[in-house]
Inverse folding.
């Protein structure tokens, strides 16, 4: 019998906790496209397991067939979303795991593939712990923190990236309060981050995205921390739409703006953010909320899923390797290299 | 038979065009609280007519009774919303209209009250035309404009304030494109402004509020123009939550940030924005969209309806008297005085 992958359909949260169990790589690919599985690190893990599902039926087939199916599943998964580096990183790592061996037996190759996916998953868990620990050093006692989108356990294989920092600071007994941007259009902040904040009993409040500036000023926010989908060699960072806005606000109010992400999010092949492909999603994601039309028939919407924050607005980038400061061309190259 | 007021319930737009007809001042007060009637200038007009409804039953009563009912209706209407200056301005003007006469006859006082409400309405229409004309001078050919909330015919007695400027520029044959912030929590941008843009066939697209920064950068927005709910003597401006955010973005990207409003929005009694009362609305407006819960049970939300934009971020303030530049303490005093 085939192995299966079981995942939480995040589009149903917070109203419903529905799990999907599948042995089909296509279901994983579609879940990534539909954002049932989302968050850059989790996309990488999901793609790795998706690839395992894609080849498991061929573990007794001739090795050529196995490799051909591997390629097809990989291409299918690669096409799901363009921005998050972790997707491509995970798929390339899976590929390397079998390319770097002289083994020509499907069953043994399948074992390698399976182990590699499990490693990616386990390493992500450890990565979150390390990001959390490094990042928590930057969170002062009595911090008022603002975050965006969802970067917690739902988005990763562990406690999260930016959320992992928040989580670790809270675990250390620091008295913190978190404002979460709701993060339109798909409300990952209200649906997912508030769910994780509540589950971890971290004092918090939800705000609409356009309340961020006023909240920073009135509530004396002193740290903004978010995740990342791809970081160029110079530090320019693609992350959920609205991140660039927040970085400008941090700069205007003289507070630090931190990115927290695994080093696998760093893409040294791109010299700046100008080269990062930005996914534009369906206008309907803006024109409808929970299936209900909120704008008149026939109007247009501009719906980029991400934006690019220029490196000069980023105070530091936290990875599992440590805290990286400008000049990022130097610090990120080092972080990627170790 | 009593006179009636007929108004469009704006909370039902764009899905339903439902009109409410009433002869009851309380219905008007409740409609203002519930945002069925909204937009600072329209709130002023609605309050004036509400006052007419409040006293019409007493036009044959003894003058003391008439004046007592006038006061009670006025107090009821004053308590509806705290931020928009136009509400208080209109009610004070209504009161002055009967206080400044020696007439002691209810029926004649009622005529005065009725005429004053009609004047406030008619003047608002003329105000919009003038704001539109002055403001359109600031809109270049091929302008890419960003606006927030709703400031059009729905929010005023005429073509609108910030929207009046957009409307006039389009009427003048200028080739413009408008990005409208959806304006969470109550989506006045998507529901109302997109409806007005569509009805006026002005090329446009809707964006989520957090897409503003990226849109300004990517789509080369060159003007931001919004309305106002109250303007302090120094130019600090209260307007729909998210306005302060946009003003920071305009400043960061080196583009002008304009406020368009009637001079009745100026409150010379307040030296700065620190003194403007900011309405905080129910957390449920953030936690629910179209009646559907979007965040987990039991979480908190911070829901200010307005924010204050400091005067140094405002390029100019457009009223029916002209275009007012800094120092606003001088230019606004002049605008209020004429």
């Amino acid at each position: 019998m085939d192995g299966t992958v079981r995942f939480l359909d995040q589009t149903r949260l917070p109203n419903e906790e529905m799990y999907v169990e599948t042995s089909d790589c296509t279901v994983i690919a579609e879940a990534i496209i539909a954002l049932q599985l989302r968050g850059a690190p989790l996309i990488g893990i999901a793609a790795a397991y998706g690839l395992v599902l894609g080849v498991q039926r061929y573990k007794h087939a001739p090795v050529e067939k196995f490799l051909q199916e591997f390629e097809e599943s990989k291409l299918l998964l690669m096409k799901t979303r363009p921005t998050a580096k972790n997707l491509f990183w995970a798929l390339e790592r899976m590929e390397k795991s079998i390319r770097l061996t002289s083994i020509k037996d499907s069953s043994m190759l399948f074992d390698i593939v399976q182990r590699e996916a499990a490693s990616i998953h386990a390493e992500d868990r450890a990565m979150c712990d390390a990001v959390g620990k490094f990042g928590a050093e930057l969170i002062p006692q009595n911090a008022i923190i603002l975050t965006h989108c969802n970067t917690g356990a739902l988005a990763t294989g562990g406690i999260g990236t930016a959320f992992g920092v928040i989580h670790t600071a809270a675990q250390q007994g620091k008295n913190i309060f978190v404002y979460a941007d709701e993060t339109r259009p798909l409300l990952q902040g209200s649906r997912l981050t508030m769910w994780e904040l509540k589950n971890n009993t971290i004092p918090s409040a939800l705000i609409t995205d356009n309340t961020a500036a006023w909240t920073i000023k009135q509530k004396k926010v002193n740290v903004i921390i978010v995740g990342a989908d791809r970081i160029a060699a110079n530090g320019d960072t693609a992350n959920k739409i609205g991140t660039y806005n927040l970085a400008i606000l941090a700069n205007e109010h003289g507070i630090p703006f931190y990115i927290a992400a695994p080093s696998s999010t760093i893409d040294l092949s791109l010299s700046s953010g100008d080269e990062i492909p930005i996914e534009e999603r369906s206008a309907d994601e803006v024109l409808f909320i929970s299936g209900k039309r909120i704008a008149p028939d026939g109007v247009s919407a501009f719906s980029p899923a991400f934006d690019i924050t220029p490196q000069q607005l980023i105070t530091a980038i936290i990875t599992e390797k440590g805290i990286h400061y400008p000049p990022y061309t130097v610090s990120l190259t080092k972080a990627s290299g170790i």
Notes: The mean pLDDT of chain B is 96. Chain B touches chain A through 58 residues (CB under 8 Å).
